[in-house]
Structures are given as structure tokens and as C-alpha cells.
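[scheduler] slot 2 assigned
[scheduler] job type: sequence-to-structure, two independent chains
[scheduler] chain ordering preserved from manifest
[runner] begin chain α
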Amino acid sequence: MDQATHAMHGVGEPSEWVRQWAHLIAPGGTVLDLASGAGRHARWLAQRGHPVAALDRDAAALATLNGVPGIGVLECDLEGAPWPLPDDARFAAIVVTNYLHRPLMPRLLDALAPGGVLIYETFAQGNETVGKPSNPAFLLAPGELLAVCAPALRVIAYQDGFIAHPREAFVQRICAVRETPAAAANPAARTAIAGSEAESEIPGHTQTSKVLPVSRYVLTA
């Protein structure tokens, strides 16, 4: 990840894409904010009642999150070291913005709990014509994010194109859900699963939260 990309992780307004689809996250569900930087999304999600695990390699950025209620931080090298979380860690949502390391994608999909939501937004090919990042390693190919998520996840929304704000950029965005087939097909199973608890460890403390199967995907304007 180049410096220009990492700089966009500073504290600021949360992404419109994240705000648009955050309502699909189970109430009180634990969220993984990957490559969180100073935590613009971690802070916003914590304010909405979600325990958040914020992972990043930037110790100075993570230090700004120390003591923020509902947020646990973990300094880690996401690209040059093993996956830093337990293999069985599962989350009600995973949020990733302005970051791409392709080898992590299978890990992210596997880390979604049943009913969990992936909200992902990053740069795409064409961005080299308007600014940084311009390295192909950090730019998604046409349709790449969609292909990664399907068919393992149900894709609720996907965009691949050009935006003018907050600055000119070519981006891909996806919101996708790991559905619970048994719950969708059987109301009794839906009730049983909704009452079960799924545990996810957040660096600094342990949070037990309920991950509810999402049976209706409300599309916002």
C-alpha cells in the first residue's frame, strides 16, 4: 500500500458507501475494520453500538484510538506476516476502504459470520489517470471485486466506475452478505439461529455478540 493510499485513512468523515450499508450489520455485532488507520470508520461504527476490532500496521494512527469506548486495536503487518487473528474469529461485518492486498481476500470472506456483511471500497484501474495510487498492484481490474465475492456471498450492491467527490477517483465498491441458507428456508431455524451467540475476540477484550441472519436487505437511496 503506497503512502498516498495510507494517508486517506486519517480521521475524517466515514465513506458514504460504508454509511449507506451499515444498517445491514446485526445490532451490536462485532466489526472488523481492516487497515483502519486512525479509525474514521471504527469510531463511527462504535458510536452506533458496534464493538470494533481495528487492525493496522501504523502504530501512531492506532494510538489515536486508545481509550475510545468499544474499540480494540491490534498493530500488525497485514502483508508480510501471518494472519494476525485466530482462525476461528468471525465477525458480523468487515469494513475495508482504500486498501487492497489480494492474498487476504479469502481470509476476509472466511472471517464473516453467518449473516455477516462485507462492505468494501477501494481504487480501480483507471485511477492512474487522475492520481494516486497508480500502481496496478493497488488497483482492481474490471469486475474483480464482484468475482471475488460471488458465489460465496450474496451481492447486495456493486459499483465499478468514476467518482468526482471527495476527489476524482476510479473505484469499485461492494456490499455482500454471507447468507444462512437454513435460516432463509426454515422460519424455525431462523429463530434458533437468531437466539444463538457467536463469539469474536477483539484485541484488548472479549466481546460476545449475537449475529442475526439478515432476511431482508433494505436498499437505501
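[runner] end chain α
[runner] begin chain β
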Amino acid sequence: MPWDRADGIPVWVGTAAPGWSAGQSLAARSKMSALIRGAVALLTLSIYLHADCIPIHEAIQHIGETKCVTGKVLRVKVGESGVHFLDFCEDQIACPFTVVVFSRDLKDVGDVRRLAGRTIEIHGNVKLYDGRPEIILNRISQIQNGAAMIPPLPKNYDVENRGHYSAGRLYPSKKSKRTKTTPSSTATYGYDVEGDDPP
């Protein structure tokens, strides 16, 4: 008989199956088996989710769909009114895809400038704007493989006053120069304008 134990809990006696130790209880083997099945399921799910991501040049085929698009961010540009663009190509005009972050969404997304040079996966609705597919990034949860690299913006970061902020430093805006008023050469200082001599 392969099961033998005096206290009634079955234990495999003899040569153990690969990965199992001889004398291990059925309950312990069952827990171990459940853990292995769970790990395999998570691995399969992550492979499936990663396989669902499409490269940037295929985004044009998925307009109107919610998709995961993957690519390397070459640079982050700041446009009008603090709108940030994630560029995936050297030639921005010829690039088949872009990501847009509006200034109002930066507080929810964070400092996206830190994504430059990183390969990311972004989830969202693929829209067509000016003949090019784009995803609008408005929350940090849309980004995989890079979201941990985005710190939040400082509370006093002013999107409209761009160019005065760099990571770790905040420069005050330039103060207007005051013009020094000099007395006019035509002032009389209490003397009679008519030309009377002082007493």
C-alpha cells in the first residue's frame, strides 16, 4: 500500500514524485499543487495581456478600439498651454502614433517627462486626430512598464508657466524691472518759475 501513517493522515511511502519529498502529507501536496496552478495561471495571464499590446505602427488599424499600444518614448515635448506629447519617432510628423497628456490631467498622471527613453505599454481608446492615431493619457493606471518611473508633479508646479521647472528645482518667474524715477530738470523746487531770485 503506498499510503501509510499511524495517525490516519495519508502519506506517500516510497519514491516521491519529482518536486515532492517522501513523507509529505496529501494536504501539503494539495496546497503546493494549488500554488503551482495559480502561478501558471498568472504567468499565462501576463503573457496574454502582453501579447494583446500592439506596436505603434499597427495602431492605425484599431481606431475606435480600446487597445494596448507599446513603444519606446524618444522624447516628451511640451506644446501650447502645457499639453505634453510623448514622441515615439525621430520625425514627429511622420510618426504613426502619439500620446497626448493635457495640462489638466498632469496632476493625475505625474511628471511624464521621466518617460523619455523608456519602453512603455499604454492602454486606452485609440482615436484619430489630424490623420494620426493617438491615445489620450489622463490617469497613471493607463501606463505599464514605466508608471513606477513617474513621480507626481510638485504641488506648486505651474503648467502655464512652463520652462521654469526642472526636476528637483523650482525657479521663480522673472520679476519685472522697476524703472527708477529721476527728478525732472524742469522742476522748480519752491523757486519762482518766473525767474525771481531766491531771498
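[runner] end chain β
[qc] chain β: Residues 44-50, 163-167 have pLDDT under 50 and may be disordered.
[scheduler] slot 2 released
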